[in-house]
């Protein structure tokens, strides 16, 4: 089954790609690897903002991480044309804006990780980091980047 068919079966519609907020490209392909820049959580056209442990609940943050994962897929598709070229999600890097005593970063980033496994099956299982930080660009609650192995179309 193609990834497009899988997305449709799952009822997943990828968002419109977001332009870069600074001096970088959303995706850099080098050899058989695609490096996807950190993506912010757009839900209903707005960035989910706030700080875990202060004013963002865990469930909202998990959904925000999933939204980051959706934007990763949208950016990747815009760059390479077809998500069927994905051979493996190699690594996700997750960043969670949180208070110093918040310790559930790993649960938050599961939102993106679970999406990759849902869409790609075994090829979506990956290495990962989930890191707490004091702030993120534009006050985002979560940011996720990715390294993805590609094959030919």
CATH topology: 60s Ribosomal Protein L30, Chain: A
Overall body shape: globular
**Average pLDDT metric:** 96
| Quaternary organisation of the protein chains | single chain
Strand content: 25-35%
Q: What is the annotated CATH architecture?
A: 2-Layer Sandwich
In total, the number of domains comes to 1
List the SSEs and their pairings:
Blueprint: H1 3-10, E1 27-30, E2 33-39, E3 42-43, E4 46-47, H2 58-80, E5 86-97, H3 105-120, E6 127-133, E7 142-150
Structure summary:
The chain is α+β, with helices and mostly antiparallel strands and 153 residues long.
Description of the structure:
This is RidA family protein. InterPro entries: Endoribo_LPSP/chorism_mut-like, RutC-like_sf. This protein has 153 residues and is α+β, with helices and mostly antiparallel strands. The chain has a single domain, classed as 60s Ribosomal Protein L30, Chain: A (2-Layer Sandwich), CATH 3.30.1330.40. It is built from 3 helices and 7 strands; from the N terminus they run H-E-E-E-E-H-E-H-E-E. A 5-stranded mixed beta sheet has the order 1-2-7-5-6. A two-stranded antiparallel ribbon has the order 3-4. Helix 2 crosses helix 3. The mean pLDDT is 96.
């Amino acid at each position: 089954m193609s990834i497009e068919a899988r997305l449709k079966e799952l009822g997943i519609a990828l968002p419109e790609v977001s332009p870069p907020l600074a001096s970088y490209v959303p995706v850099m392909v080098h050899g058989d690897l695609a490096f996807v820049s950190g993506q912010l959580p757009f839900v209903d056209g707005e960035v989910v903002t706030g700080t875990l442990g202060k004013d963002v609940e865990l469930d909202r943050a998990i959904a925000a991480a999933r939204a980051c994962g959706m934007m990763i897929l949208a950016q990747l598709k815009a760059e390479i044309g077809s998500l069927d070229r994905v051979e493996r999600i190699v690594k996700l890097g997750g960043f969670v804006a949180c208070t110093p005593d918040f310790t559930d970063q790993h649960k938050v980033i599961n939102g993106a990780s679970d999406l990759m496994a849902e869409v790609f099956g075994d090829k979506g299982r990956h290495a990962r980091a989930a890191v707490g930080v004091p702030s993120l660009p534009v006050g985002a609650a979560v940011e996720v980047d990715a390294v993805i192995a590609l094959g030919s179309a």
